[in-house]
Amino acid sequence: MNAVTGPATTVVASIPSPSWSGFEIGPLSIKAYALCILAGIVVGLLLTRRRWTARGGDDDSLWSIAVWAIPFGIIGGRLYHVFSSPDAYFGPGFDGTGDLSLIPQVWRGGLGIWGAVLLGFVGAWIGARRARANIMVFADAAAPGLLLAQAVGRLGNWFNQELFGGPTTLPWGLQIDPSSPTFPAQYPPGTLFHPTFLYELLWNLAGVAVLLWADRRFRLRGGRVFWLYAAIYTLGRVWIEALRIDDAELILGVRLNVWTSILVFAVAVVMFLVLGARRRLPAGERALADGRAIDHDVDNRDRTADDDSPAVRPDDADHRATLERTESEEPAAAEERRRS
User: The dihedral of CA 314, 319, 322, 328: what is its sign?
Assistant: First the structure.
């Protein structure tokens, strides 16, 4: 943070925005935003790999799923952003004054998480079918890694000086270069803004910790880790999105992403509760079609009388033991009578 001493010796702290946003290699331009997205993918995959192998998966199946899920997720995220913030691409009111060439320029920023998760899940499903893997086991394994990737990727917004919140006098206010095209013209130079990228980064990291703890503590299976991820993320996204002042589509005066977050949160909570309310779970679930099963905590008291293996009561066992002793004693008694 920067500390600035004013005329009245008031100290105002702030977070500076980076002056560096990338570098050139010959004709190739490498953007910091793209590097952050790639770094997020790497750390997310590393965490997912560890959790996937713990569930009986292997590296071959992981990469088979990843090569479909990652490009599908990037395409889905870009499409969601383009159609939820269309002015730059199609012009205000789709009047044709926008620049369609900006659509594939992902490195300039603009990936909508909803499109990324939705289309990324489709890609993961395709990859899982080809690898003969259980898609819900993979979704549970990947959920914390996905949230970790989102946390790291948010740093890209910092480098691009974009997607910040409204003005603030808080000591962690974000500086934006007044010459940047993202600086709001209605505010004077030197205005500090809410660093919403930082809020979401910290929220997501806390969410990763909660997911890992909850999965270890309650052994969540059958998609419950994934739905818990969706609930945690959207709960934070509602209030963080409400702080932002960048252009966005509005419905009843509320940003589209706020409505989407509320809807996804409600669905996620219902799905989490429904899956948790099932009284009996399968004895195990397999990451791979030919792999080992993941054991569930099944309460044997829930077994019904029509189970394949009949229950054995203690008095039945004692009765059989008595019969076996009697049968072994009868030949000896008969031999003793014959001799006498």
Answer: negative
